[in-house]
Input
Amino acid sequence: MKLVIEDLHKSFGGKDVLVNINAEFSGGLSVIIGPNGIGKSTLLRIIAGLYRPSKGRVYLEGSDRPVQELTYYVPEVINPVNVDYTFKDLVKLLGIEDPPEGMSERFGLTVKDLEKPLGTLSAGMRKKVLIMTSLALRNEKPVLLYDEPFANLDPSAVRVVQEAILGLSSDHLVIVSTHIMTAEFVRSVLSRSASFYTLIGGSLRRVEESLVEEMLSLKVVEGPCDVITSLTKGEAVHSVRVGGGVCRVFARPSADVAAEVAEHRGVSIRDVTMGDIYEFLMGGAGK
Output
């Protein structure tokens, strides 16, 4: 099954949010990375049929049914107002199976939690319930959309959701939008030949997996430009000028350099994040 997006545009109040998007998703896992506010949620909502595009269309190649009939969308935020139905009510309403055995325990949800109105649950617990619903719908919905699925979750729940998404991607078309990804999850995604995308200026851009892999193998060294240049000379792979005399360098520092960095006040060294990769893709970097 192939999800096709053709010449898609979306504007709000005369402001372009999505511009001339053409893409094909052919099953498996696709991840759209980037910070909040760049149009990730808008794109997923259009695919799910919750927003109408200003121009263009979305369809499933080889299917006469509308995309939204075969799609389940888990939003980033579930508004608790007037949500008085429970998980069990939701299951009955949708006419679906119960989630896989033991899944509620893995998510840290009790039988009583599943009997409570969603509006009374915390944001994280509401997210867990809707993700569990997507698992119960796995035989009905071949297209699964997850908008910031790791937000508002504790680390143990994040790991459970990551495992569930990776498992579903083996026989579903799964699209995840996120600005929160652990390096461990990214490496798991890379091992499954998944695709990475981002939105820059409203346009969808494919991110080469090799670039993501390379960036995650580096360290970020940040501090005054003159100090950073001296410390990482010959070891910098990419660099970004942050502003105010501060530079951020992506490098493979030797143990000696790492130790020297630790001695400098105002200079830090850390792992690369997905936010760093997005900033690099925005064009603020140079070799």
